[in-house]
Task: inverse folding
């Protein structure tokens, strides 16, 4: 991992933080893509204490907002340039009905649409000629979801916060499988993978907006 560039969304806590710490220990240059810069700085300090020679940086990102995703892409290209691994980890779970500025249901916007957009923005920046990874954090909750493509934003159907979460994970898994198929079909060195972390004891509920 030495001198490889890794982007981790939601790297300030939970799975994202542990992944950032692990990769920093391995010598990677870890870009912490977080909505809250203050929380990211606190997490960065914890990593620095554990790994004094860690190479970490922070670029603000709210994955639920397309403008923020685009801004992140520009800043990453300017400050870092090349990418070896993208870990789409940031997510929210089982929140009351909320929407982003574009009107998209917030769990779908955060857990899927943001990861989709960020992947597209960063795809041209992956390092050529070396194996690379796009890892999307999924959930076995996808087994309980079913995408209604005619009502993705819950405008016609009575909102259910757990079904909305499950649906966002169905979308994530479908995207990952199709992306991987297309990457391999094109001869790319990039693989797209979905990872179910198990029932991890994280603070994702606390970090989800009320």
Result:
């Amino acid at each position: 991992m030495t001198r490889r560039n890794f982007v981790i969304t939601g790297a300030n806590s939970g799975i994202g933080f542990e992944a950032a710490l692990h990769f920093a220990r391995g010598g990677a240059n870890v870009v912490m893509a977080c909505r809250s810069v203050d929380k990211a700085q606190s997490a960065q300090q914890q990593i620095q204490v554990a790994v004094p020679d860690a190479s970490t940086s922070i670029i603000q990102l709210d994955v639920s907002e397309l403008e923020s995703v685009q801004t992140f892409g520009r800043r990453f290209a300017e400050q870092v340039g090349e990418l070896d691994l993208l870990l789409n980890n940031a997510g929210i779970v089982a929140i009351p009905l909320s929407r982003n500025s574009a009107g998209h249901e917030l769990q779908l916007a955060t857990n899927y649409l943001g990861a989709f957009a960020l992947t597209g923005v960063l795809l041209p920046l992956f390092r050529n000629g070396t194996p690379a990874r796009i890892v999307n954090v999924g959930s076995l909750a996808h087994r309980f979801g079913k995408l209604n493509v005619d009502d993705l934003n819950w405008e016609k159907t009575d909102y259910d916060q757990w079904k909305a979460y499950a649906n966002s994970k169905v979308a994530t898994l479908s995207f990952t499988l199709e992306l991987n198929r297309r990457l391999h079909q094109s001869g790319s060195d990039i693989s797209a993978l979905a990872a179910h972390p198990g029932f991890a004891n994280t603070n994702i509920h606390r970090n989800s907006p009320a």
